[in-house]
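call fold(seq) -> C-alpha cells
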Amino acid sequence: MQPQKANFKLVTLNSKLYPLNSLSHARHLDLTDPLKHFRDRFHIPKHNNQDVVYLSGNSLGLQPKTAKQYFEQELKDWATLGVEAHFQGKNPWFNYHEWFSKPLANIVGAKPGEVVVMNNLTVNLHLLLVSFYRPEGKRRKIIFEETAFPSDRYALESQVRFHGLDPAECLIELKPSENAAHIETAHVLDVIEKAGDELALVMLGGVNYFSGQLFDLKKITHATHNVGAIAGYDLAHAAGNVPLSLHDWNVDFACWCSYKYLNSGPGGVAGIFVNEKYGDGSALPRFHGWWGNDAKTRFQMAKEFNPAQGAEGWQLSNAPIFNMIGLRASLEIFEEAGFANLRAKSEKLTAYLESLLNNINQTTGKGQIHILTPANPAERGCQLSVRIIDNGLKLFDEMTSNGFLPDWRQPDVIRFSPVPLYNTFEDVWKTANFIEKYFEEA
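ret:
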C-alpha cells in the first residue's frame, strides 16, 4: 500500500508562518480544541515526572478522577449499611445496573431496554451464542474474520464443538485479498451470499483489533438477514470509539467490554445488546439466573422463572457493583462531552497522526512505515495499526523507554490510539517526531 501524500503547507498563527507538521501547529490545534478540558478529568501516567504519551486506550482506558470518590461512597455504604445498602444506599445496589441503560444506549445506538451491563465480554459472548447460534440441518456455518481476537475464535470453536460439530467444517474465515491489509466490504457480502442457506451466524469484531478496520455493520447485517442468518458482533474495539446504530441496523445481538475506550478499569463490567424484537426471550433458548428474573418478583423466590423484559432477562447473578463504578464515572464524562463531538475530534487526531507518519516516509525516503488501517475515516476509529519494516519491536521498545505507551501486537504491528477524551494533538506530534528522529539516527 502506497502512503498518501501529506500536504504540509504553511499556516498563519499569531502573524507567523508555521508548517502543519510543526509543534506550534499542534499546540494551536490543542488551544482551539473545544474538548481540551476533558483531559483534566483523567489520571495520566507519568514517566520521569512528566505525562506519558498514552496511546493504548484501545487496550486499557485511563482512570477517571471521579472513580475514586465513587468507590469510596460504595465502600462507605457497605461499611455503614451492610446488606441494607441494596435498598438504602446512596446508589442502591438492587437497581444499580439500571443507571447504565440510557448512556450505553446512546453510545451503541440502541433503546435503553436493549442493553444491560453484566459479567465480562467472553462470558457474555457465550451466553448470547447459546441463544443465537442454533445450528440445524445444513444451516450451521459461522463467518468471522481470520484475525479475530483469539478469545472470540476460542468461543466460536467451543460452541461449534458443544453442538457436536467440527469447527473445520463450520467456521468460515474472512481474509484480506492478496497484498491487502484489510477486508473489503464487497468481499464480506460475497462470502455471505455464497454461504447462503448454510449460514447460521455472522460474528465479526465491529472494529478489528489487529488492523483497526471498522466493518460496515449496516450492510453486513442486511446481507446476513437476506440469507436467513443471524448477525452478531463483538464491539470491544468499537463501543465508545465509533458511531453505532445497532437498533436501526436491525442487529440481532452484540457484546462488548468496557475497559478500553469506555474506561471502566481492568476487568470492568461488560455489556450486551439484544434487539427488542426478541422481547422477553421466551422464543430463544438461554440460561437463566435470578437476576434475570423480573425485578418486581425477584425477591419472591418463586420456583418459576419470570423473565425481565429485554436484555435484562439475560442477566444471571447480582450486579458486580465494584466492577461497575469506573464505568459509571466514565459514562458521565461521555454524556457531558457528547459522542458526536468526540467522534469529530477523533477523526482529526487520527488523520493528523496519519499525515505525520506518511510525511516521515516521504522525508526519510525509507518507506518503512506501512499503515494497515483503512485511510477512509468511515472505515476506522481512532486506532492506526502500523507495520514497521525491519525490527518494529526495537522502535516500540525505544518508545516505551522514553515516555510513550503505544501497544504492540505480534508479529510486527504497533497500534497507536489517540483517544479524544484525553489525548492531545501535541501527543500525536511528539509521537511522530520521536519516530522521525529514530529513523534519521538509524
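The chain has 13 helices and 17 strands.
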